[in-house]
Amino acid sequence: MIKEASIAGFLKKLSYEYGLAVIKNLVGVLAARLAGMRVVVDLMDLWHCDRDYLVFSPLDFAALRKAECVIAWSRAIAALLRRAGLNCVEYLPFGVDLDVFDPLKADPRLIYERYPQLEGKVVVGYSGGGHVYHGIHKVLGAYRLVEKKNKDVVLAIQTWGQNQLVRDMIKRFNIERAVLIEPTKLFNDPLRLSFLRAASILVLPVSKTPGVYLAERTTMYQFMAAGNAIVAEYSPGVAGVLKDGHTATVAKYGDVHSLAEKIEFLIAHSDVAEELGRNARKEVEEKYSWNALAPKAREIINRVAR
User: What is the DSSP string of 32-52?
Assistant: First the structure.
């Protein structure tokens, strides 16, 4: 409360010009209310992927209840907050801005020029975090089962700088055909976009860490934008967006054999893989692109500001 009181004065000055504050975590909510401002809480960055617990303090609950509305970025988190008794919880997925992140506009030759060993192969791809709490070890375990039966496959992995960690895991799994794509500084680097476009199958693992398990992760929407087949591990966050047999094929949670079977099925049925990719891309364009989501975002803010 001391911290809230210390910033209430600053917010009070802003309140003469702005009657509404959109706050990206719970710090400052009570201060804004003390300053006479309406508050929308954006929970996008509240929970970190590496924390295996989910905790609300009494002060957190007070802040959530004082807000006019809370924006949840996944259906699972929205349901959790509604069960906690909050009056206004709006689901607004983060989605993807296709104006700045569109793998279909990338040059497909770029990834092959840099990594010629991928050309002509069935590329099983993963792009994202390289720590265990991202679930990457399950991608490696499933792929090891797949490559034993399929000689034309290659695993391609791009992380945000955990290549040495992943390299060690590849050795432990005794994987024969794997390529580590160099990390890129930008999420929409041309090399990354080219990689996502070139991947035959993209694998989306999860973990029980709440920030991963309940989330509709940015990576998922980026995979959908690539228009290629997705094999996703089940979680409440994944189930809120991806539909098994329509926009992805969904494996059982924590079951590496199920993950491998789904990958093998799509390798054997390229027509199904292509259809899943088309459907996923269409859903992104119609439901989860920023152009599609902008009207709802404006509606939430305008409703609270009245």
Answer: HHHTT-EEEEE-TTSS-TT--
Residue 253 lies in a domain: yes
Q: What is the pTM of this model?
A: 0.92
Is 293 inside a domain boundary? no
Phi-psi region of 174 (alpha: psi -120 to 50; beta: other; left: phi over 0): left
Q: Identify the sign of the CA torsion 135, 140, 146, 150.
A: positive
Q: Residue 39 CA to chain centroid, in angstroms? A: 26
Last residue of a domain, which of 32, 57, 92?
92
Range of the domain at 141: 103-288
Query: Tokens 């891309």 — which residue?
Result: 281
**Which of 54, 57, 53, 87 is CA-nearest to residue 70?**
87
Residue range 97-119, pLDDT digits in tens: 999 999 999 999 999 999 999 99
Are 33 and 138 members of one domain? Answer: no
Stated as kind and residue range, the H or E segment containing 153 is strand 153-158
Residues 54 and 115 in one domain: no
Q: State the Cα angle at 48 between 190 and 193, rounded to 5°.
A: 10
Which residues is 157 bridged to in the sheet?
126, 180
The reported pLDDT for the residue numbered 8 is 73
**97 domain-assigned:** no
Say whether both 146 and 236 belong to one domain.
yes
Q: Are 156 and 127 in contact (CB under 8 A)?
A: no
Other beta carbons within 10 angstroms of residue 168's beta carbon come to: 11
What residue has token string 């007070």? 62
Residue 58 covered by a domain? yes
CB proximity list for 225: less than 8 A, separation 6 or greater: 96, 98, 101, 102, 103, 104, 196, 281, 284
- Whether residue 189 is predicted with pLDDT greater than 70 in this model: the reply is yes
**Total domains in the fold of the chain:** 2
DSSP assigned state of 68: S
